[in-house]
């Protein structure tokens, strides 16, 4: 089954909103999520491809309703719940 | 080990729909494109995502598709980077 993320070339989502002078992050928590994922990948807790897989396994309805970094946070939580420090004890 | 495909060769993207993670966008599956260049050899993302301890390492090719073939319109090309096992040689008639 093709997953909900695979929408390249698909219409019906409306026009892309291009933000002038867009900042890297729109809130501090987004930068923290970005940094957290970088640290976890660099330390070998999971691979980048496992992270992408976890993003894609998000339930479709939630995926479409979530922002970019909300999806990242979901994937981090999913992966850490299955292994690593957050999965222990 | 040399790469199997050369620049200019026509290849067809395998029309598969794997259950797990893959780096093949749905919009190129089954379509014929042209090898632009090889980007070196990289661990297969599908197997990395599945947690395979020693994933296959394959050549990754930049493949160009005519936008008109993909979308039915557009005079430009769309390029996608694809692992070797995602593609197969296309016949001269594009079959």
TrEMBL record, chain A:
<dbReference type="InterPro" id="IPR008990">
    <property type="entry name" value="Elect_transpt_acc-like_dom_sf"/>
</dbReference>
<protein>
    <recommendedName>
        <fullName>Nitrile hydratase beta subunit-like N-terminal domain-containing protein</fullName>
    </recommendedName>
</protein>
<dbReference type="InterPro" id="IPR049054">
    <property type="entry name" value="CN_hydtase_beta-like_N"/>
</dbReference>
<dbReference type="Pfam" id="PF21006">
    <property type="entry name" value="NHase_beta_N"/>
</dbReference>
<dbReference type="InterPro" id="IPR042262">
    <property type="entry name" value="CN_hydtase_beta_C"/>
</dbReference>
<feature type="domain" description="Nitrile hydratase beta subunit-like N-terminal">
    <location>
        <begin position="1"/>
        <end position="84"/>
    </location>
</feature>
TrEMBL record, chain B:
<feature type="domain" description="Nitrile hydratase beta subunit">
    <location>
        <begin position="2"/>
        <end position="88"/>
    </location>
</feature>
<protein>
    <recommendedName>
        <fullName>Nitrile hydratase beta subunit domain-containing protein</fullName>
    </recommendedName>
</protein>
<dbReference type="Pfam" id="PF02211">
    <property type="entry name" value="NHase_beta_C"/>
</dbReference>
<dbReference type="InterPro" id="IPR024690">
    <property type="entry name" value="CN_hydtase_beta_dom_C"/>
</dbReference>
<dbReference type="InterPro" id="IPR008990">
    <property type="entry name" value="Elect_transpt_acc-like_dom_sf"/>
</dbReference>
């Amino acid at each position: 089954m093709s997953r909900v993320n695979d929408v390249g070339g698909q219409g019906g989502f409306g026009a892309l909103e291009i933000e002038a002078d867009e900042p890297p992050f729109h809130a501090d928590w987004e930068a923290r999520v970005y940094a957290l994922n970088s640290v976890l990948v660099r330390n070998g807790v999971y691979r980048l491809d496992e992270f992408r897989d976890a993003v894609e396994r998000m339930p479709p309805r939630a995926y479409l309703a979530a922002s970019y970094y909300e999806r990242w946070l979901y994937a981090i939580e999913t992966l850490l719940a299955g292994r690593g420090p957050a999965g222990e004890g | 080990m040399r790469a199997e495909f050369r620049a200019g060769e026509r290849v067809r993207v395998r029309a598969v729909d794997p259950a797990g993670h893959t780096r093949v966008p749905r919009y190129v599956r089954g379509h014929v494109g042209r090898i632009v260049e090889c980007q070196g050899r990289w661990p297969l993302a599908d197997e990395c995502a599945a947690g395979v301890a020693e994933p296959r390492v394959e050549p990754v090719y930049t493949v160009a598709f005519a936008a008109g073939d993909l979308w039915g319109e557009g005079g430009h090309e769309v390029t996608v980077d694809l692992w070797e096992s995602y593609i197969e040689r296309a016949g001269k008639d594009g079959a």
